[in-house]
TrEMBL record:
This is Pib. Residues 70-230 form the NB-ARC domain. It comes from Panicum miliaceum. One of its GO terms (molecular function) is ADP binding. SUPFAM superfamilies: P-loop containing nucleoside triphosphate hydrolases.
C-alpha cells in the first residue's frame, strides 16, 4: 500500500507542476489535470480499503461469483493488479472465462484485445467473428461488411443472448467512453470484464459508487471494481 500511496503523491505533484505551466488560469487543461489526480486518488483509496478488508477481515471476492451474479442489468467489472502489467491479470480472468458454470450461463462469449487507437469497425468485426465462430470458418472470410452491417449483427446477438465480453488492455477512460456506447442495457444479465493497467480506468469503467475488492490470487494482488450489491459476494 505504500507504493500505491506514493503513486497518488507522484500524480498530484506532477499535475501541480503542470498547472504552473498553464498560462491561462482555470483553463481546460488545468482542470483535466486536477480531475485526473482526483480520480487516481479516489481509486487507490478504494483499493486501500479493500486491502484492509482482505487482511484484517479476510474479505475477498471470487471473480466467478461476480460474473454469475443473477442481476439482470448489464454489469461491468474492472480488474487491475498492483504490478501495473495488464498481462498479469490474464490468468485469473481466463480461468473465470473458461469456468464450466460461466460457460453454461453465457452462450455469447468474446475476448477482445483493445486496439490503439480504437477502431469501431475492427472492434465490431472481432466481436461478431467470435459470437458466430460456431457457424464455421465462413464468418472469418466476410471482410466486406460495413460498420452498419456489423453493428446490426452485434446488436441482434446482444439482444438475443446473455453475453460475457472481456476487454483486454483498455488503457484510457476515453477509450471506454467510445466503447461503452456500443453496449445497451438489454436486461439479460450480460457482463463486461475490463482488464487494465490503470487503477482509475478499472474504477471508472465499473461506474459511480463502485466498490473494490481483493480477488483470490496466489501470485499477486489483484482487485476487482464493481457496482455495489445488496447480497454478499464475500468468501
Amino acid at each position: 500500500m505504500k507504493k500505491l500511496r506514493a503513486r497518488v503523491e507522484t500524480v498530484s505533484q506532477r499535475n501541480k507542476r503542470y498547472r504552473l505551466t498553464v498560462k491561462e488560469s482555470g483553463s481546460k487543461a488545468a482542470a483535466a489535470a486536477e480531475q485526473s489526480s482526483s480520480l487516481v486518488a479516489a481509486a487507490i483509496f478504494g483499493v486501500d480499503d479493500a486491502w484492509h478488508a482482505a487482511k484484517h477481515e479476510n474479505q475477498r471476492a471470487d471473480l466467478v461469483d461476480l460474473i454469475n451474479n443473477e442481476d439482470e442489468d448489464l454489469k461491468v467489472i474492472g480488474v487491475w493488479g498492483t504490478s501495473g502489467v495488464v498481462g498479469h491479470n490474464t490468468p485469473i480472468i481466463r480461468a473465470a472465462y473458461e469456468n464450466p458454470d460461466v460457460r453454461s450461463k453465457f452462450p455469447g462469449r468474446a475476448w477482445i484485445r483493445v486496439m490503439h487507437p480504437f477502431s469501431p469497425k475492427g472492434f465490431f468485426q472481432s466481436l461478431v467473428n467470435q459470437f458466430h465462430a460456431a457457424q464455421g470458418v465462413e464468418v472469418f472470410l466476410e471482410k466486406d461488411k460495413t460498420e452498419q452491417d456489423l453493428a446490426q449483427q452485434f446488436n441482434r446477438y446482444m439482444n438475443e443472448r446473455r453475453c460475457l465480453i472481456v476487454l483486454n488492455d483498455l488503457s484510457t477512460i476515453e477509450e471506454w467512453d467510445h466503447i461503452k456506447q456500443c453496449f445497451r442495457n438489454n436486461k439479460n444479465g450480460s457482463r463486461i470484464i475490463v482488464s487494465t493497467a490503470q487503477v482509475e480506468v478499472a474504477s471508472l469503467c465499473a461506474g459511480q459508487e463502485s466498490q473494490a475488492s481483493e480477488l483470490y490470487d496466489v501470485d499477486q494482488k489483484l482487485y476487482a471494481f464493481f457496482k455495489k450489491v445488496i447480497f454478499s459476494i464475500w468468501r
